[in-house]
């Protein structure tokens, strides 16, 4: 029989078995899902997946003209382009404006979008050291052909495109245009409405107008890229404006797609500083590159309108342009009325003053006689 001492020593030597500690379950990482195309953030993967799979989530060109390779957002715009520029010979290519690839059939484009762009999203952790970009994103080397202005035909990186376009715009602003004879500023000061037309976007501007524009409307046309705008034949509206000196076709800007937009921004910005503020400016273009110009007009209190001609019918466009110029005439009439009223008031005061002087002379003579 073992002694109590032996039992205690035996117990002490036995290993103590402990129940395994349960580690707390790991919580899912905190963060959001981000679309890499537009950089919008979403709370769930399902939301960002649905966003990326939907073709209407992003604005980009989806159709291309097989004649001149110009691309468009809407197929209706492509139809009008072929009607105006290619004698209604419609040849469609399907174009991915996100990566500048062209496809012969729509099914190939849709398959490309599904395989490449519909899954272009990433999870962004809340940890500050985590970035949605990786080392493959930097630097992005552009491989498309260089244009004469220094920009490229197409871009992989949006940042590179923005930097090149900003530099090109600055070069245009600094460029000496002494060889180009621009409209006379004194003549433009007599106008009631200045209309800048992007012929790259709406070459058949005059053909869509059902009637004449108001007197005092000056149309300044711009073209760039591969557009070769020609004056319309037997167009009474164009012939009238051209005959009275209210139309000016700016020399071709450059061969880049948005050269006309840059030229419009440059000249509209300069005229804003030189023309009376009551003269409204209207820009007719379907492009979206006029945000900075809009901000300038707001700061200088210039009445300005930036219209997409593809969203308006010809009669509505004509009525809208005429109503804008009518506003200027009404303003001028009100100013003239105020001037006439002020002039009449001054004349009345002068007459009253002369009458007072004459009355004082009569009183003075009567006192002398007494």
TrEMBL record:
CDD domains: PIN_ZNF451-like
Domain C2H2-type: 63-91
InterPro entries for the chain: PIN_11, Znf_C2H2_type
Gene3D superfamilies on file: Classic Zinc Finger
Record field: compositional bias (Polar residues): 1-18
Keyword match Zinc: yes
Domain of life: Eukaryota
Keyword terms, alphabetized: Metal-binding, Zinc, Zinc-finger
Stretch list, region Disordered: 1-31, 327-355
Pfam families xrefs: PIN_11
Gene Ontology MF terms in the entry: zinc ion binding
Protein name: Zinc finger protein 451
